[in-house]
Specification:
By secondary structure, the protein is of the alpha+beta class. Helices cover about 20% and strands about 35% of the residues. The two termini are about 15 Å apart.
Length: about 190
Amino acid sequence: MLKFCVSAFAAVMAFAIVPAHAGLVYIGTYAGNDNVSGNNNGQNNDISDEIFAFNGDTTVEQLAKIDVCNPTTDQGCLPNGQKPTDGAVNASAFTLVNSGAAGSVDFDLTGTGYGLEYVVLKASNSFALFYWDMDPLVGSFLWQIAGFITNNGGQVPDLSHITFYGGEAVSDVPLPAAIWLMGAGLAGI
């Protein structure tokens, strides 16, 4: 009986610790640019409209944006070929590694009061919108254009810019406290 109880407790703890998240969850690809609210240039591709259509969220702000640029011809372009633009937070909270049509992002929004909720990949004449389904304060993810955006010739274009959207960070219930409470409840049984 003791062996069964220990095995059952270990199984419950394993499921409690393993996160059930997917990272970037694809929402859709839309024509045009990911314009901020009120600046859709007569087109129905306002990013707030797309996010609202996805889940009814109306509190999203542009956190930051990183454009791909040419350091020798574009003013404000950094030597790494990127032009960061601050939004609600400093763009340095996001580190973009770009190899054209794929790359990675690391971010740390600790202490900013904001959390990451959405990511937009802009390439060619379209943008792909993703929901961030993990820790909104600190994380990293891989991204790719292939499978989401193609140009008029059917080829995979290079990244034009990546934009990060989010809202005020909400504190979760601390997991260690929940684990101890669950363990105490099982021990009591």
